[in-house]
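User: Some background: our group keeps a shared notebook of sequences we're curious about, and every so often someone picks one and asks for a predicted structure to add to the entry. Today it's my turn. The entry only has the sequence so far, pasted here. Could you supply the structure so I can complete it?
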Amino acid sequence: MLRTLTRVAGALAALAGLALTATGVWFAVALGGSGTAEFTTTPAPGSPVVITPDVLNRVDADVRVSATPSRGASLWMARANPSDASAVIGDGRRVEVSGVSVRDWALTTSARGSGEPAQLGSADLWRQQDDAEGPVTLTVEQADAPESVVIAADGGSVERVTLTVVDKRWFVESVVAVLVGLFLLAAGVVALWPRRSRTAAAVPAVPTRPTPEPTAATPEDAR
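Assistant: Of course. Here's the predicted structure to add to the notebook entry:
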């Protein structure tokens, strides 16, 4: 019974170690030594993009937001208090970034609103804004949380949005996961490895000399 429980525990430890090792290696390769994570999306054309605090202020590190316009378009990007941004946008049509997918390193988006997009650049509530005839980048610092980022294109569409977060601790945690996974895998293999039971060696028997059988006396022996 004890042997069976040991083998079951070994199998579970080996499976957990294999999964943990594979996950740790995958994250370490994807993040690199600098611990850089990038999440990207291609929004639906014709609508501004709103990135919520659930994404921007979910981590402790600063978040760099980069956007690229379609050919021939100019780009505008700003950050503001979430309630102020929502008041300006109203019920206007927009693409909202509300989460990330680590499996695909992608931003999850949803279409919101039904009216015409609002004139965003004319409001005076933005904490920071920038515009250019090409890619635009803003950095969201967690000291100013919570914040929303709004991106709009003039003469085209927002073609691509990328969020970049750098945290070296993520790479270290990935390496630790690999080491723990290898330890569990090795422990599981040892528990599953068949062992031969040791038996006491048989003591060799001491050979005995056969006893001669008595012979019957003859008349010649009596002489």
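Suggested note for the entry: Helices lie at 2-31, 53-56, 82-89, 168-192, 219-222. The beta strands are 36-41, 49-51, 63-69, 74-80, 94-101, 106-112, 128-132, 136-140, 148-154, 158-166.
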